[in-house]
Design brief:
Length: 107
Amino acid sequence: MGPGRAQAAARDGKADMIFGIYFNDERHLSQLRAACLHVRQVVVFVAKDKPFAYKDENDLIGKKGVTNQGESYGNDFDAFIKEKLTVARANGIDAAFKELLAGNATI
C-alpha cells in the first residue's frame, strides 16, 4: 500500500495505524495525532563495503541516496533533502535496497 492509500485508509477508518509516517504540512491527520507515537530517529543504510563517518545530516551532503516514493521525514528534514541532498525515489523499499546494492546510491 502506498503512502497516499495508507493515509486514506486511516482517514476512512479502514486502518487503525500507519507505521513509518512523519507529519508534514501535507499529512495533517488531526483526528489521529493524539494517538501517534512520535519517534524522530531516521536510519540510513549503507552498503557494507562503503562505510563513512556520520556525525549529523551534513555528512550526507555529496552522497547519492534513495528512499521510498512518497516518503516524508518531517518538514525540516524534507527541506534539507530538497535543498542539499541527491535522493532518488524508488517504488517500494525493496527497490530502494536494490538500488543501494547495485551501487546506484551510496547512502
